[in-house]
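Bench notes, afternoon.
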Amino acid sequence: GIGTGRKIRKSNRTRQKRKSLSEFIMSLWNIFGGGDMGHMGHRPGGSGPFIEQYQVYPVSFIGKQELEKGNKIILPGSALTRLAHLHVTYPMIFQVINPEVHLSTHCGVLEFIAEEGNCYFPYWMMENLGLYEGAIVTIKNVTLPRGSYVKIQPHETEFINLSNPKAVLEASLRHYAAISRGDTINVEYSGRNYKIDIKETKPEDAICVVEADVQVDFDSPLDYKEEEYKAPSLGKQDSLTFKEDKEVDISKISSAFPGAPKRLDERPISEVQKNKIVQAEEKKSKGTEFDPRKHRLVHGVRKKHPIAAKETVFNGQGKKLG
C-alpha cells in the first residue's frame, strides 16, 4: 500500500520532469533552427503568428550600448515562451511597426531579458520609426528570404573615401539580421557614425542578411557634387568679339614713330616699297602675323647703284712662294 503509492508518485514526478526538460530542449531546438526531428525548423502544435505590443526604450537604459552598431533588439522572456509554441524559423526576424505613423522596418533579436511589457531598441532605430521613450510598438514574427543584392547610398562622401568602404560595410552588416528597402541604417567606424540609405534589395524589398552572400553596389553620396568646369577668364571682355575690317588710314601708320620712312643708306624709298609697307600694316591690323621675309628690301642695303663699276679688292701681280 504505502510503499507502492510512494513509488507511483515518485515515478509520476520523474516523468513530469523528463517531459518538462524534453519540452524545453525541443523549444530551444526549434527556436534556433533545429526543428522537431521530423519537421526541421518547426515545432508541432501552436497556432497563429506572433504579434505583440510593447513599450519601447533605448538599449542604453539597460547598459547595452553596443547594440547601437546593429539592429537587434531585446524582448521579454514571455516572448520566448510564446515563440516556443509557434512555427518559427531561425534566425528569428521581426517586423516592427509604429502604429501611430505607420512606419515599419525589420530586425532581429539578441536576448529575452527585458521586463514584461517592455522591449529595447537601438536609438537610431527609434529615430527612424519616429518612436519616443515609452511609445507603443507592434512586433510581428516574419520569415524573409536570404539576400543576394543590396544597393546603398551613403549620406556623406567621406564614407566612400575610406580606405576600404566595402570591407567596413561588410563588417557592420554582421550586426544586422535583416534590412529593408527605404531603411536608413547606422554604420560605425573609427569612432564615427555614418548614415547609409538602403536604395534597393533583392530578391525582395526586405531580406535576411544572416549567413547570406550579398552583392553590394554603391550609389553617389547625398552630399556629392560634380566639379563645375570654369572657363578661362577673358579679362575685361565678357566674350570674344570679331570686328569688321576697316580701311587702313595711311596717315596713322607708324604713329608711334613720327617722321617719313627712310632706307638705311639714307636714300628715299620708292613707291613700290612704300606700298609694301602699307600692305604689311594692313595685315597687322587684321591680325595676320607679319613675316619680314616676305617684305625684304629689293637688292638689300646698297652703297652704290648696281650699274656702277665693281670695286677692285686685290691690286698687283701674283707671285710664287719659294
